[in-house]
Amino acid sequence: MVVELQGTVGSALGVLHIPDVISDQLIGSEYENIKSGERLVLPIALGLGLILAGLTDTDFILSGDRSVWKETWGTLLQRSESTPLH
Fold it and tell me: Residue ranges per domain, the chain?
């Protein structure tokens, strides 16, 4: 599950990138109408992406424009793709 961070004039958005395997797992749930490519205000996109990743036991990845991340949310760390999370 990927949430792409995007900066726009005056606001920050998140674009949900939902792999087909996750979309298939959501059929029949209250989340089945959420489609890949949806652009939402960033806090909603982050929350929804995290919920979908948790429900489907899938990795949660943030990508895109790091400048839209608010410092008050905590430090956004970058990791190498070869570095596993523990």
Answer: 2-65
Q: For 9-66, write each residue's pLDDT tens digit.
A: 888 999 999 999 999 999 999 999 999 999 999 999 999 999 999 999 999 999 999 9
Alpha helices in 27-86 (DSSP H): 42-56
Q: Could you tell me where the DSSP H helices lie in the chain? A: 20-26, 42-56
Instruction: Retrieve residue 62's tokens.
Output: 């943030």
* pTM recorded for the entire structure: 0.84
CA distance 27 to 54: 16
Closest of 68, 6, 8 to residue 37, by C-alpha: 6
Collapse the DSSP code of 43 into the 3-class scheme (helix H, G, I; strand E, B; otherwise coil) and give the result.
helix
Question: 30 and 17 in contact (C-beta within 8 Å)?
Answer: no
Confidence tier at 84 by pLDDT (50, 70, 90): low
